[in-house]
Amino acid sequence: MKNLLGGPVLYSHSQFKIKNSDIIKYKSHYYKFSQVKNDFYKYYSIKYNEENYSGKLIKIFCGKEENGVFDLIYKTDKFGFRENSDKLYKQVDYVLLGDSFIFSICINKPNDLISQLKKKSNKTLLNLGVWGSQPWSQLAYFQNVTKDTNIENLIWFFYEGNDYEQPFIKMENYYNKIFTMNKKDLFNLITTSTVGSYTNNLNINNKNFYSYEVENTKFKKDYLEIIKIKFLESIVGIHSVIKFFKQYNNLLNYEDYNGIVKKMNFFLKEKNVKKKYIYYIPSYLRLSYTNNYFNNFNNQINQLNFLKKQVQQIAEKNGFEFIDGTKIFNKKNIVNNIFFYGLPTHFNEKGYEMMAEDIYEQIIKY
User: Fold this and answer.
1) Residue 98: which residues within 8 A CB-CB, separation 6 or more?
2) Half-sphere CA count of 271, side-chain side, radius 13 A
3) Is 357 exposed, middle or buried (0-12, 13-18, 19+ CB in 10 A)?
């Protein structure tokens, strides 16, 4: 059943309700850190400091929910975005705009998305990814910080997992606030919107601030928890049968998202941006299902396919080229390779490597 239908493991929706952080803690020891590399640049290394980023040092305590081993430490640019040279706000080849997948949460340099793209191309890249952002707030950030920027191309990312959750119609006042925000307030908003940064509450002179290792990771084998995890993983196909016949509502407010993309299109025309793309990132939910004939009748997959179809229609309607990022990950058991321990985290280094290769081949190479 598991191999036939696949689907996500419902750790938090079963009667056991195992917390994701507990599963990560167990998995990180079970796999003996095999999925977590220690080849990243430390912020105090010569390679890192050669970049001369102008902003603050930030630590995000994300390891417990992502890889179980390392947190993220990085420096910001003048606006608070991750690891950009300030000169890119004058002239840049590509702006990458999106949420935590573009930010590359909990992946230290040079294994993050932008760094892996830079390995493949000599084009200049400005990373405006913000954790937890939605299309309307991404538009506001973009309009605010690039007023005086000469931009050649924009790649705007749509994440299938949650980029439809906050309709613009309910957030228009907040959009206007971000769009008109001064530099200082914008910096504070961007750096504190990332969960776990604690930039204003943590003493950076404390030696623990400079440690990449996740705190409190002492592993004590709880055999009952292990049995629960193994049991839930073994019955994943049964959960999928139940969801297979369930009817699902549309995820996207079409007019709402269309209005946001239309606003962006007008702004890009005023700036004479040459090329604009919307790149569609698949969710863990989609990729967790076995890629086979039965997906043609899976209502949950059909719900996601309809979402993708709507995003493509809106993109092309407003002059954007639509790039389907689901295709590069369309392989059997891909979740075990591109997510930490095959769990619903953000991408690991391999996931960002594949995504960077796809972006390069479909967009930047030409």
Assistant:
1) 128, 129, 133, 138, 156, 157, 158, 159, 281
2) 26
3) middle
User: Could you give the 3-state DSSP secondary structure of residue 161?
Assistant: coil
Q: Provide the 3-class DSSP secondary structure of residue 89.
A: helix
Instruction: Name the token pair of 46.
Output: 């010569």
pLDDT in tens, 163-205: 999 999 889 999 999 999 999 999 989 988 655 455 545 566 7
- Using DSSP's 3-state secondary structure scheme, residue 53 falls into coil
Closest by CA position to 76, among listed 62, 57, 49: 57
> Distances in Å between the alpha carbon of 338 and those of 21, 96, 210, 320, 325?
18, 21, 27, 28, 14
Chain position carrying tokens 């990814």:
129
How many helices and strands, by DSSP H and E, does the chain display?
15, 7
**Residue ranges of domains in the chain, CATH in brackets:** 22-216+250-364 (3.40.50.1110)
First to last CA, the chain: 44
Q: Residue 325 is encoded by which pair of tokens?
A: 């990022």
**Strand 72-75 to 57-60 pairing:** antiparallel
Q: What are phi and psi of 247, to 5 degrees?
A: -90, 140
352, 37 contact by CB (below 8 A):
no
Helix (H, G, I), strand (E, B) or coil at 324: strand
Centre a 10 Å sphere on the Cβ of residue 115 and count the other Cβ atoms it contains: 20
For the beta sheet containing 321-324, the strands, ordered from the edge strand earlier in sequence to the opposite edge, are 125-129, 91-98, 150-159, 275-281, 321-324
Give the largest CA-CA distance in the chain: 61
Amino acid at 84: N
pLDDT in tens, 304-321: 999 999 999 999 999 999
**Cα–Cα distance measured from residue 100 to residue 62, given in angstroms and rounded to the nearest whole number:** 12
Nearest to 167, CA basis, from 256, 263, 278: 256
